[in-house]
Amino acid sequence: MRKIDLIVIHCSATRENRPFPVTSLIACHNSRFGFTGYHYYIERDGQVYQTRHENLPGVHKDCPCFDAQEYKDL
Fold first, then answer.
1. Rounded distance, CA 68 to CA 64, Å?
2. Which of these, 14, 74, 4, lies nearest to 43 by C-alpha position?
3. Which is it for the CA torsion 25, 57, 69, 39, positive or negative?
4. Phi-psi region of 25 (alpha: psi -120 to 50; beta: other; left: phi over 0)
5. Is the dihedral of CA 44, 70, 11, 33 positive or negative?
6. Please, what is the average pLDDT of the chain?
7. How far apart are CA 8 and CA 39, in angstroms?
8. Using alpha carbons only, how large is the chain's radius of gyration in Å?
9. Is the dihedral angle over the CA atoms 9, 13, 14, 16 positive or is it negative?
10. What are 50's strand-pairing partners?
11. What's the mean pLDDT in 55-68?
12. DSSP string covering the chain, please?
């Protein structure tokens, strides 16, 4: 099994009180970028969806919108 040495956390940047199901995520990303940007998507109810398999070389993003370093040792 491959050793996992990097986990990237993104935020969908939607309001906490508004639903954003995986179907909405896929439609939004496909219309804007032509593909879904996340490997996995976790809905608010905890359901996990696999949406893509690709590596991240050279990718520079402004997300997540919180300090993910706080979670690095979990």
1. 7
2. 14
3. positive
4. alpha
5. negative
6. 76
7. 10
8. 13
9. positive
10. 40
11. 57
12. -PPP-----------TTS---HHHHHHHHHHHHSS---SEEE-TTS-EEE------TT------SS-GGGGTT-
**What token pair was written down for 37?**
């940007």
Tokens 């976790």 -> residue: 42
pLDDT beyond 80 at 70 = no
Specify the pairing of strand 40-42 against strand 48-50: antiparallel
30: tokens are: 């496909």
Tokens of 20: 């954003």
